[in-house]
Amino acid sequence: MTARTSHRRSSGAIRRLPSGRWQARYTGPDGAMRTIGTFAAKAEADQALAHEVSTMARGGWRDPRLGEQPLGEWFRGWIATRTDIAESTHALYEQVLATWIDAPIPVATTSGRPRAIHLGIRTLASLTPAVVREWNHAVTTESTRRVTERWERSSKHDTRVNAAIRAWAAASGAPLAPTGRIPGWARDGWAAATDASVPERPMRRNAGQTAATQAYRLLHAGMAQAVADELIATNPCAIKGAGQRDAHDRADRRTVSLEEMWALADGMPERYRASVILAVCSGLRAGELFALQRKHLDLAGGVVRVEQSLARSRQGQSWFSAPKTRAGKRAVVLPKIAVAVLREHMTEFTPPGRDSLVFGTQNGTPLASGSRSTMFAKARSAIGRDDLTWHDQRHSALTLVASTGATLPELMERAGHASPRAALHYQHAVDDSQRRIAAQLDEVLIERPRTA
Question: InterPro entries, alphabetically (predicted)?
């Protein structure tokens, strides 16, 4: 049996183990003795110990036990203790965590063998830029696959088929009722004339990008907090542009013309017709608009006060939550046409009482987002704008406000933006400075004669 050989230093010790390998240990700043590891040669152990001593001398030493907590467990605790975000954001973060971070995500391999990457079971300290890149690619691929599958299923849904039959019947001179059962003659006639094919609708260019971007942003923010908490040394999320992948699609949002606004409103159920007009005239977010109560409206002054938003449905919780930021609480002055439409709507559909919802259901409860989406989908299909989303109305409203010459602070106040970054986009959308510069250049170039 080989005798143990020990070489003590003031900062640690190196000893030879019975196996013949060399073990290096050191005393940390907290006074505790820690093992660096074992090495084949004494010189390697010496080098490792010298590195630790040098790191401590520079003040860069970190307790290696930090960051050993599983990532999924740490993220759940971090989200639960966030007091600076709204309830809806809490719910969104929990959903993103459960779907993309603390869940196995399939990874494409050249060998064809199924493999998955699960960040949640890894420790904080074990996350490297290479692991994050692999995970990010897997999330983007899987998210796109899921969105594509949903899109393909929706194209075969009864709602799409019935809409196609009604469009065919109207074109054939025998229009059907907008709701109710499709007659057998219409279904058979449509199938014979079109081979039962539903008109294709283009899939969004950014299919899957939104979910992937949300997942990366959450991971980046959480790991940045872990750095601030000194659990890890650096943030492993270093993929350039990954947090802004959907920025180009946001910049190219669709707009709604005033004629389309009225057509969309007419395509909605009568109870919610005014919601489209108010959305385009006010720029309120959907959650803000459908959380409005009588007490928030001053029709005499033409003012809407935004004080709350619809919360994500959770058992035992209130229907409402506070706006995400302080800037979200604001007063919006409406144009006269919107006031007139609102007054007519509230007379017919809004029950008396300060707390009555302006755009509630017949039972007085908030309209579910799924129901709103279904109604809006029918309205946009009726005017041939399947590309529109409800949020495009807010974009249209703020672009219209920017076209009036509103300043950046005025845009921010009306939109409820906490930072100028988002509001700047609406100014850029109507900024004609480049055309003005080009026109001035033309004048200069025309004045100067061409030389040979």
Answer: DNA_brk_join_enz, Integrase-like_cat_sf, Integrase_catalytic, Integrase_recombinase_N, Phage_L5_Integrase_N, Tyrosine_recombinase_XerCD
Helices 258-267 and 273-282, axial angle in degrees (round to 10): 150
pLDDT at residue 164 tops 70:
yes
Q: What pTM was estimated for this model as a whole?
A: 0.64
**Which pLDDT value is given to residue 452?**
45
Q: 387-411, pLDDT tens digit by residue?
A: 888 999 998 888 888 888 788 888 8
Tokens representing 391 are 């949020």
| Average pLDDT of the segment spanning 86-93 | 83
Q: CB of 390 within 8 A of CB of 373?
A: yes
Per-residue pLDDT, averaged over 192-215, amounts to 73
- In the CATH hierarchy, which fold is given to the domain comprising 258-429? hpI Integrase; Chain A (1.10.443)
Q: What is the dotted CATH code of the domain comprising 74-156+198-248?
A: 1.10.150
Range 5-57 has CATH code 3.10.590: no
By percentage, how much of the chain surpasses pLDDT 90? 40
| Span 228-266, pLDDT tens digits | 998 988 999 999 888 775 555 554 567 888 899 999 999
Decide: 391 and 286 in contact? Cβ < 8 Å. Answer: yes
